[in-house]
Request: fold
Amino acid sequence: MQQDNLILVSRYCSLHDLDQGFITELYRYELIEIITIEQEDYLDMNRLNELERITRLHHDLGINIEGIEAIVHLLDKMEQLNRQMLTLRQRLKQYE
Reply:
């Protein structure tokens, strides 16, 4: 992975006024991925939208990590079902 697509966890936390422990907890619950290079922790910038959504749930709405885990799981499931429904609609159009 190219290092120019990464942001330091400490930089992200300072920009969003977050405790690094929050990011560590998200990683522990496997909600985000942390990349360690030369003893520095980084986040993939391509996945920042997901992290920012999680951060807003926690910071703005006061939802704890367990609640965020449940919400993320349900949102992922909804997205999967929407993709499946789109595929089935496309297949149905072939038979019409």
Remarks:
- Residues 3-95 form a domain with the Multidrug-efflux Transporter Regulator; Chain: A; Domain 2 fold (CATH 1.10.1660.10).
- Residues 29 and 88 are 33 Å apart (CA to CA).
- The two ends are 45 Å apart (CA to CA).
- The mean pLDDT is 91.
